[in-house]
Specification:
Layout lengths: L17 H10 L4 H8 L10 H7 L5 H9 L5 E2 H7 L5 H7 L2 E4 L2 E4 L2 E5 L2 E5 L19 H9 L5 E7 L5 H7 L2 E8 L2 H13 L5 E5 L11 E6 L22 H13 E15 L7 H6 L5 E11 L1 H12 L7 H15 L3 E11 L7 E5 L5 E2 L3 H16 L10 E4 L3 E10 L2 E11 L2 E2 L2 E4 L1 H8 L2 E5 H11 L4 H17 L3 E3 H4 L5
Parallel strand pairs: 6-7, 6-9, 7-8, 9-10, 11-13
Antiparallel strand pairs: 1-3, 2-3, 4-5, 10-12, 11-12, 14-18, 15-20, 15-21, 16-17, 17-19
Helix pairs in contact: 12-13, 16-17
Length: 505
């Protein structure tokens, strides 16, 4: 059983000049971009060889000292700290709980990670602290970055971050929300979140302790985001990962409960894991969880794994590959999966939108290579609008009178081969270069049509223009074109000006 670590927490009643501290850190170059370069990876939340990194930052400098302290968990001579970081008072940081002192040396109690313009405290991982505590507080990781990118960033009155952890989703929501509530069962995580809010001078967030939706009772929200402890396992060792509920019951409760807490038109985005028998039934259970909530739902599957691979991935994260208990835990997890009849486990996200005035729709997509790139919010809004429009049509030919706009975040790639001494296009593939990864093959007719989709002419007019250029009958082109246009709208490539009056770019 993992031990709690509640004795190490921030003393929020102690003074701290947050603005000066962040300026010193920024002036030293301790940024997300620079840290990624130092780690030799694409982003600072991926794993790295700590011994290699240490040797890169062994020479004393303001930046190197910060990396050694806050990323590697190494001790630094107090005199050296004062010499290179004269604007930072060790005693003040120790009093608030950020640093500790021992025999003239200073060391950090927490990992301090730059994420865009934020500076976020979390616990060191098992690669530094060999034994993680049960109330371990996660920092910026792949899941939190994915959820941040998926979330729609429209201005709303009230938002809920369920399972807030160190607070990253709440901080991002606060930028476009009048009031934000962050909840967690882990009191230590709420302490970290409150410290991070103070460090980044973010106001207007209320922190509440409790499970699922209990802390907010029947309150309504325009936005709900959640990265809950969704791991399917027989354990309850780590608050951030495990619960006492069986299998994927946590995911079901979070998703089903969102419908009752969303205001009309409100949107929830939840990361979660779920199990199923095989490839044929992967979407059935999650969509069933929200079928009676008065909400539209869109399920994304990023990855599917067999139980052994899934268990190994999570145990390596929590235990480390070299743990003497790794094999024993693997056997325990596999026995649990066999008992529960679990065939496959998928990871993904679901969008849920409250819409009680009309019949609700649901859809599911497996995302190519499980990729999302950057901010996806506007793409998500386009896809929801397209889904509403397409389901309202009696006939796809009604699209002919719509003016469409082609989203600018796309790439059209040509694959060519040489035939008879000339380069000949064999494949034209369209794919997104930002947002949720969608792609598909198009031909030259569709490619030429897309080039004209600027919101000024109707689809009917564009089809005629392309057909005239290719000297073909527009009617022969129309039927095939409508099928492709429907698919492109459902993927967010095309949006109708005649629905919203504009198309977000």
């Amino acid at each position: 059983m993992a031990q709690t670590n509640s004795d190490i927490a921030f003393r929020l009643d102690r003074p701290l000049d947050e603005q000066t501290f962040k300026k010193v850190v920024a002036d030293a170059g301790y940024s997300q971009t620079q840290l990624a370069k130092t780690l030799g990876l694409s982003s600072p939340h991926e794993r790295q060889d700590l011994e290699v990194v240490y040797r890169r930052v062994k020479a004393d400098s303001p930046y190197n000292i910060l990396v050694r302290l806050f990323r590697l968990g190494r001790k630094v001579d107090g005199a050296v700290f004062r010499q290179y970081l004269p604007g930072v008072d060790i005693e003040t940081l120790a009093a608030v709980g950020l640093l500790s002192r021992e025999n003239g040396m200073v060391f950090s109690n927490v990992n301090l990670t730059p994420y865009h313009d934020l500076l976020l405290a979390s616990d060191f991982g098992p690669e530094i602290n060999r034994q993680m505590s049960s109330d371990h507080v996660l920092g910026v990781g792949a899941a939190s970055v994915t959820l941040a990118g998926l979330t729609v960033r429209r201005k709303v009155a009230k938002a809920l971050d369920l399972g807030t952890g160190a607070g990253i989703q709440a901080f991002l929501a606060a930028r476009h929300t009048g009031r934000v509530i962050g909840t967690d069962t882990n009191l230590r995580a709420l302490n970290f979140a409150a410290f991070n809010a103070r460090l980044n001078q973010i106001k207007g967030i209320e922190w509440r302790n409790g499970s699922f939706y209990e802390p907010v009772a029947d309150e309504q929200f325009d936005l709900i985001v959640s990265n809950p402890p969704y791991v399917i396992s027989p354990e309850s060792r780590f608050v951030f990962r495990d619960t006492d509920l069986p299998a994927d019951a946590v995911s079901r409760q979070v998703l089903h409960g969102a419908g009752d807490r969303l205001s009309e038109g409100g949107l929830a985005c939840v990361l979660f894991n779920w199990h199923h028998h095989d490839d044929a039934d992967w979407a059935a259970r999650p969509l069933g969880w929200v079928s009676d909530t008065g909400c539209d739902s869109w399920l994304l599957c990023f990855k599917t794994a067999d139980p052994l691979t899934y268990a190994a991935d999570w145990l390596k994260t929590g235990e480390g590959r070299d743990s003497p208990d790794y094999g024993r835990y693997l056997d325990e997890w596999m026995a649990y999966y066999e008992k529960m009849g679990i065939g496959q486990i998928s990871a993904g996200a679901m969008f849920i939108r409250k819409r009680s005035s009309e019949a609700n729709w649901s859809r599911s997509d497996k995302i190519e290579k499980g990729r999302t790139v950057g901010e996806c919010g506007r793409q998500v809004e386009r896809i929801f609008a397209a889904e509403d429009l397409l389901r309202s049509l009696d006939d796809d030919r009604q699209l002919l009178d719509h003016r469409l706009i082609f989203d600018k975040h796309h790439l059209l790639e040509h694959q060519l081969t040489v035939e008879n001494g000339r380069w000949v296009v064999q494949v034209e593939r369209l794919h997104t270069d930002k947002g949720i990864s969608f792609s598909g093959r198009v031909d030259m007719y569709i490619a030429n049509l897309l080039a004209g989709c600027n919101g000024c002419r109707t689809l009917r007019e564009l089809i005629k223009t392309v057909a005239d250029r290719e000297q073909t009958d527009p009617e022969k082109f129309t039927s095939a074109c409508l099928g492709v246009v429907r698919k492109l709208m459902r993927s967010g490539f095309l949006s109708s000006v005649d629905v919203s009056g504009r198309a977000d770019q």
